[in-house]
Design brief:
The complex is a heterodimer of chains A (253) and B (379). Chain A contains 8 helices and 12 strands. Chain A has 253 residues and is α/β, with parallel strands linked by helices. In chain A, the strands form 3 sheets. In chain A, strands 6-9-10-3-11-12 form a 6-stranded mixed sheet, sandwiched between helices. A 4-stranded antiparallel sheet of chain A has the order 2-1-4-5. In chain A, strand 4 and strand 5 form a beta hairpin. The radius of gyration of chain A is 18 Å and the shape is globular. Chain B has a 10-stranded mixed sheet with strand order 1-2-6-8-10-12-14-16-18-20, covered by helices on one side. In chain B, helix 6 (334-341) crosses helix 7 (347-363). Chain B starts with a helix and ends with a helix. The chains are: A alpha/beta (253), B alpha/beta (379). Chains A and B meet through helix 2, strand 7 and helix 3 of A and helix 6 and helix 7 of B.
Chain lengths: 253, 379
């Protein structure tokens, strides 16, 4: 459903991504790992359509209505409507907008785009409430301003809650594990695993292996200096945990 | 000298007097950003409205007043509005220390003025809406005097055309509570002046939210004086100028006794080529120990040509006080916009939601829920 071919990308004229080839099929879970500054976060932002990142070469294709389609011209909101979800490393605080209003607006935008009926406020609240236990979240989170005053763990749970509500075909989760204690990590992983099905794909961008103890990936890729330098199955993650990244880096430099 | 003593006689509209009025110039500190000579038309005509006020039943008891046509007495829930007599105003005036702009006093003096006394009959409080509507390009002068109020929330809405000169005054006595919402929702050429002054006794509470939605020129001179211990004044505002419109507020809050509290949040959402100006002073008199005062002005500029000027100020002559003031001006954040977009929400919708979110904490300062909902409906 996602095909990234020889993508090069710039941020403010600095080339961060230097030729990535990457393919995701429905039902797969991929982990993208790599040391700090390797371009992991940039990669997920390119796919979700962040306006600050300019693809200078190569293509990103996504399956739309059964056809692989170049999405270069699609804005972030269009990509989201087609079923691409970005879980933020640093979820943004939105003062004055309640969580439920934000999620309701997003949900109805997707419904509208997909030709489904929009949901009224009351039904939507019930729908959200049905998802809260998965993430061990309290209903009062819905009436607070989006992410405002949330702890690190609460923010990440809130991202996963949004993901479950929007039910994306492709979920890109950027460092969803960072800053979580072990209990929160398990809860977040449980939420992510709830999305797993033969129709959905998940791409986990992570620095550490520990998230992968709870969300088993089918493929692991190592990104370094804007390129994928190694791909493998989940045993690669364990090897990285044991040996770090240096042995791979030494091999290419 | 106060404007009220000058306005005791109802006068016929006097063109000569009007023409002699000297407008303040931008050389005066408090008019630095508002060039009245350019913004303010010199031709006035006095309200010729003949339609009588009308009561409207709804979620909230409403009285609609047309132009400056008002006689007799109307009851709205627990609130009574009465066409007032001059000596009442004068008695009030002797006790207060109200300062008014000279040119506004003269304007009021030169044209008939509607004096309304607001009183509360019932102990049980029910909120009320008083809506002023001006159908013509004319001048409406209103003095609203609040007295014998125990606990009353009122929203005043000003809509239509022309000009309003509103003077809202009152003493809030021991343990009494007023809540006033002023909503300016005039057409795009509308001119609106509001001067308000309230004095608070011991344990008294005054809560004011002023919302500017329409009009070409809005000037607020608002003040509160805390004369008693444990008094609380909330003086908040929201302004949303658009096109080439101009909003200017000059606020003065004086702590004249120990152990009292004032809070002020003014927020501006400034669009197109419009301007928003906030000048607010909090004065803590000598001996006003252990008071707490907060003052904050925040502006959101929606376009590169929108302008904000902000001058929060504190003058503190007492020890052991807790005072904070601040000001910020900025644009919508790209980070926030992208967060919305990544969830499928279009940029325009995201901007509208962010602007509304920015405004919301001012709206939420309204304490009476019925009035708060009414205000949200009106925005």
């Amino acid at each position: 459903m996602l095909k990234v071919s020889d993508v090069h990308a710039n941020v403010e004229d600095n080339q961060i991504i230097k030729g990535i080839n990457f393919e995701v099929k429905p039902g797969e879970v991929h982990a993208i790992m790599g040391p700090n500054g390797s371009g992991k976060s940039t990669f997920s932002k390119i796919i979700s359509g962040h306006p600050d990142y300019e693809v200078t070469q190569g293509s990103v294709e996504f399956e739309i209505n059964g056809k692989m389609t170049d999405i270069a011209e699609l804005e972030a909101s269009d990509r989201a409507r087609e079923g691409i979800f970005l879980g933020f490393q640093y979820p943004v605080e939105i003062p004055g907008v309640t969580n439920i209003t934000f999620m309701h607006e997003a949900f109805n935008a997707l419904c509208e785009h997909q030709g489904a009926d929009i949901m009224n406020e009351k039904d939507f609240r019930e729908y959200v409430k049905s998802k809260l236990p998965i993430l061990e979240m309290n209903e009062n989170f819905l009436d607070r301003a989006v992410n405002e005053g949330f702890s690190g763990g609460e923010k990440k749970k809130n991202e996963i809650l949004q993901m479950l509500l929007l039910n994306p075909r492709l979920a890109l989760l950027d460092e969803t594990d960072s800053g979580l204690d072990i209990d929160a990590l398990k809860t977040v992983a449980k939420g992510v695993n709830t999305l797993r099905s033969k129709y959905n794909a998940i791409v986990l961008v992570t620095h550490y292996q520990r998230l992968l103890d709870y969300i088993q990936p089918d493929f692991v890729h190592v990104l370094y200096k804007g390129r994928i330098i190694k791909s493998g199955d989940k045993s690669l993650a364990l090897e990285l945990e044991e040996k770090g990244y240096d042995w791979l880096i030494e091999g290419i430099e | 000298m106060s404007f009220l003593t000058e306005t005791l006689e109802f006068k016929e509209f006097n063109q000569t007097q009007l023409k002699e009025i000297e407008l303040p110039t931008i050389k005066e500190e408090s008019w630095k950003y508002t060039n009245l000579a350019r913004l303010y038309p010199h031709a006035f005509s006095v309200s010729s409205e003949s339609k009588s006020p009308k009561k409207i039943q709804g979620d909230i008891e409403t009285l609609k007043i047309y132009g400056s046509k008002f006689e007799g007495e109307f009851q709205l829930g627990s609130l009574v509005l009465r066409a007032s007599f001059e000596d009442e105003i004068s008695r009030f005036n002797e006790r207060s220390h109200y300062f008014s702009e000279e040119f506004l006093s003269k304007l009021i003096n030169a044209a008939p003025t509607l004096f309304i006394s607001l009183e509360q009959t019932d102990k049980k409080s029910a909120p009320a809406l008083v809506e002023f509507y001006n159908a013509k390009e004319e001048q409406v002068n209103i003095v609203l005097l609040s007295q014998q109020i125990t606990d009353q929330a009122v929203m005043f809405k000003f809509s239509g055309k022309g000009q309003y000169h509103v003077h809202a005054l009152g003493n809030i006595e021991q343990n009494k509570s007023f809540e006033h919402v002023f909503l300016q929702d005039m057409d795009e050429a509308g001119i609106f002046f509001l001067e308000s002054h309230y004095e608070l006794g011991r344990d008294a509470r005054y809560s004011q939210v002023v919302v500017q939605k329409g009009g070409a020129l809005t000037r607020l001179n608002i003040s509160a004086k805390l004369n008693g211990e444990n008094a609380e004044a909330d003086m908040h505002g929201l302004y949303t100028p658009k096109g080439k419109s101009h909003f200017d507020v000059s606020s003065y809050i004086e702590h004249a006794a120990p152990h009292n509290y004032s809070r002020q949040v003014y927020k501006g959402i400034i669009d197109d080529q419009s301007k928003g100006i906030f000048a607010g002073k909090v004065k803590v008199n000598k001996g006003s120990l252990l008071i707490a005062a907060e003052q904050l002005n925040k502006n959101l500029l929606l376009t590169p040509k929108a302008q904000a000027f902000s001058r929060p100020q504190m003058e503190i002559d007492a020890d052991d006080v807790k005072c904070a003031h601040g000001s910020t001006t900025g644009q919508l954040s790209e980070k926030e916009l992208f967060y919305f977009e990544s969830r499928g929400i279009r940029r325009d919708k995201a901007r509208a939601m962010l602007a509304q979110g920015f405004a919301m904490d001012v709206i939420l300062k309204t304490k009476n829920e019925t009035i708060r909902n009414l205000l949200i409906e009106n925005l």
